[in-house]
Amino acid sequence: MTLVTPRHLQAGSPYPLGAHFDGLGINFAVFSGNATKIELCIFDATGRREVERLTLPECTDEVWHGYLPDTSPGLVYGYRAYGPYEPQKGHRFNPNKLLLDPYARQLVGQVRWTDALFGYRMHSAKGDLSFDRRDSAAAMPKAVVNEDMPVGKKFPRPRVPWSKTVIYEAHVRGISMMRDGVMPHERGTFAALGHPDFIAHLQKLGVTTVELMPVHAFLQENFLLQRDLRNYWGYSTLGFFAPEPNYLSTGDLNELRMAVRHFHAAGIEVILDVVYNHTCSGSELGPTLSMRGLDNANYYRLLPGEERYYINDTGCGNTVNMSHPRVIQLVLDSLRYWAEAFDIDGFRFDLCTTLGREPTGFDPGSGFFDALMQDPVLSQLKLIAEPWDIGPGGYQLGNHPPRFAEWNDKFRDAVRHFWAGGEGLRGEFAGRMLGSSDLFDHHHRKPWSSVNFIASHDGFTLRDLVSYETKHNEANGENGNDGHNENYSANWGVEGPTDDPEILQLRATVQRSMLTCVFLGQGTPMLLAGDEFHRTQRGNNNAYCQDNEISWVNWKDAATQEGQALISYVARLTAIRRDFPVLQGDRFLHGNTEIEPGLKDVAWFDERATPISVEDWQNPVARALTLQCAGAGNVDAAGNEAGGPDIVLMFFNAGHEPIEFSFPRAEDAHYLLIDSNISDGAVSREACTTASVEVAAHSVQVFANRPCREQS
């Protein structure tokens, strides 16, 4: 349908990209190197009716642009792009498909699944080589023009040093859906995120940094909706600038800004988990929603010589082309927008290896990494890599640029396996407890580069690790073909829930032992939301589509006696970490530095206080280890030198029977800081007067040559 258009766009400017209000009108700018024409489509406030269609009058440096005077924020719009429809050459232009602006900062409406969303005729014998002429506008969300964040007083960022960072991974929706004291309409939104009770809980735990699972607008995939499921995790990005509309209780972007400021006022940072490696459009058989219709050949990596098909290094059907300067600009503009408009403190990059892959393979000096490292805003924030994808050479743990920390799955697997009874793991376990220097001790990197975790959103929760030996993903409807098969978990006698008090006590002890490794090992500790009070997903280790009580955090568990005890245990661990600088990992410990004569920075012993020989490290059934770390920094409450180094001892007994451990330095004072065989870890502040102690099966005892000042 041709619309009557009483207005014409002025030339406007190719920069900045997106739609921006200058006080008198709105400038529109969108990149497409292969389009022959782009139209701006204006809709009514609901996004249901197209009221005006205007051709962008100018194209400068492959950016199409136009200026609409006498127009205010709140305008609802989309694009239509003209050009060749030649899938074999990588071009998929179809002006019948309304396209979302990649720079859209707010959305109205949502994707409504219909065959009209696809650029080709569904069920055609020609497949995606066919051409569909139906208008998709009625089924598409639209962009809303909003005002830039006003320049004014900036709230100070906490800027927590990496060495003091404690991360808490949480889901915006899941963290508040089952929380009392939150208004029903605010549950699952940014409005509930900064609730004072939640912040008080994080402060009690000693958390410094909240890492939020994806908050960018994302797609609800049709195959999930057909099974009455939903994309819960959000790793299917629809727009890189717009917050997920369902996370806004009123539609006001200030909800997120206020939540971040509440965290900052409490000294807590906010990091976003971001997905730039692919978009929600899937493979060549997916819908045409945005970048595919704007310039498929430039926005995505295509198979050389077979440009009809996408390179699928992500496993999600497509891979964003991070070798193109305009695509790099898109990602950096998005990151900078979140950092400046919402005061975000850092980013965790999903499948970060993909972002660093050039046509020749992964490159820590790739264009994206180079641009990120020199950016005056982004280079000063916390950057975390998920260091793998499914592409060739996709596992790059330890190989990202020095500015990055990296999720360390080798720490996760080694600690899980060690406590689950795996054999021959002494050396592997020891290396992971000391910051994985084999992976990170290069290019002047620090132990904090290793993000140490036992559980994350992807996999079993901590409680499920000690309750299930196999995954139970029946609710996902994929016949058990999804989720990891090797979890290094153990059920300790019964699969799933049990009332057996001995099994419950053993499971709780193993949980505390693994948490002790996370928080007192060298590196940056990360805790999955709810693991501090025994959260379960009922054995589901891939709850990506469970937007229900399987995934939501049940705060009633936190109020139980067992939940309160584990919360106190985690709080003790973070207090110990804060009080002993040697545990904060400002340098790698190799055992070749003497803190004082006869005292090395790190040493390993067996339970008899005998240094472990090469042969002992290879003993496949040995289940006991003593770790001694020493460092300067024993200061009093006023910060004055109190004399002598800090010495921290950890006695690990992963065996099935109690073991007597001897102190390597019998002449020192020994104060028990925490015992994982005790429900809340509480111990006496009196010095131990014996030369040895008994450590219960499957547990850890931690000693130091002074008490922890922060513990009562």
From TrEMBL:
Highest taxon of the lineage: Bacteria
InterPro entries, alphabetized: GH (IPR017853), GH13_cat_dom (IPR006047), GlgX_Isoamylase_N_E_set (IPR044505), Glyco_hydro_13_N (IPR004193), Glyco_hydro_b (IPR013780), Glycogen_debranch_GlgX (IPR011837), Ig-like_fold (IPR013783), Ig_E-set (IPR014756)
Gene3D superfamilies named in the record: Glycosidases, Golgi alpha-mannosidase II, Immunoglobulins
The keyword Hydrolase belongs to this UniProt entry's keyword annotation: yes
Keywords in alphabetical order: Glycosidase, Hydrolase
Glycosyl hydrolase family 13 catalytic domain: residues covered: 181-577
Keyword NADP: no
Pfam families membership: Alpha-amylase, CBM_48
SMART domains: Aamy (SM00642)
Family: Belongs to the glycosyl hydrolase 13 family.
Annotated protein name in UniProt: Glycogen debranching protein
